[in-house]
Here is the input.
Amino acid sequence: MPGAWIWILVYVLAFALFQVLLYRYLQGQERPPLDQATPDYGDTERARPRTAVAGVETDDGEMIRCPRCGAYNERDPAYTYCKECVQRLQ
Here is the structure.
């Protein structure tokens, strides 16, 4: 019976060592600071508000325009939401 406890202890120590190594590896990666990770949309006071328009097709019929943000999205029956603002397209 003491042999089983030794294996359990070895397993727990090995798992803890693996977790520490994984943590150190992930902390060592280059990541931008939090203020650089978020996009800069400019001053909202001066930014021109987007007008809501109805879903509009382009000339080629392969794209549809979002009624909320105006972004063009591919016309695909599998996608019903805008890729930018997640507004329902139809």
Summary: The radius of gyration is 26 Å. The CA atoms of residues 65 and 72 lie 4 Å apart. Confidence is low (pLDDT under 50) at residues 51-59.
